[in-house]
Amino acid sequence: MTSFTSALNCSSSPPPCANAFMQATFDCGEPIEAIRREDGKIAHGEVRIGDSVVMFGSAKEEYPAYATAMYVYVPDVDATYAKAIAAGAVSMREPTDEFYGDRSCGFKDPTGNQWWIATHQRVVPAEELQQKFREAREGATS
Fold first, then answer.
1. Contact between 65 and 11 (Cβ < 8 Å)
2. pLDDT tens digits, 54-85
3. Can you tell me the distance from the alpha carbon of 12 to that of 85, in angstroms, rounded to the nearest whole number?
4. From CA 111, how far away is CA 114, in angstroms rounded?
5. If residue 77 lies in a helix (H) or strand (E), which one and from where to where?
6. How far is 11 from 66, CA to CA, in rounded Å?
7. Cβ 6 vs Cβ 46: under 8 Å
């Protein structure tokens, strides 16, 4: 079995990128698992967004905080985007219908992580997808 799990290393504790922000944006609830260091900061925690696990922890000297980017499929991109903005995210791009069949958008959480979210709306046949890609590229270079 192969699975992919993302990890966030946050600058504050409790890490807002993994606690309050993700709970408010993705309705992921309390961490599945949380191990605290002696100083009370979270050494390791996990939350579930849909059927995926995101691990998180507080930065420390040998493992400093870093920003990352995530791409998450959600049932309703517009509603999730609104929740993210209400939870303190900064918009990078409002929800937009894409030529490849998704409706997507992007935002940064309060610690600088980029979140790109999408709702898949339709399967685009390969030939149509290639044509729309060419058209989009030509429009970008005009």
1. yes
2. 888 888 888 888 888 999 999 999 999 999 99
3. 20
4. 9
5. helix 77-86
6. 8
7. no
Give residue 10's pLDDT.
77
| Residues of the chain under the 50 pLDDT cut | 16-17
Q: Which of 9, 27, 46, 29 is nearest to 84 (CA)?
A: 27
pTM for the predicted model, two decimal places: 0.84
As a whole number of angstroms, the distance between CA 30 and CA 22 comes to 10
Q: Residue ranges of the domains in the chain?
A: 6-141
CATH 3.10.180.10 assigned to domain 6-141? The reply is yes
- For residue 35, give both structure tokens: 């191990």
Distance CA 64, CA 55 (A): 16
Q: What backbone phi and psi angles, to 5 degrees, belong to 62?
A: -80, -15
3 state SS of 132: helix
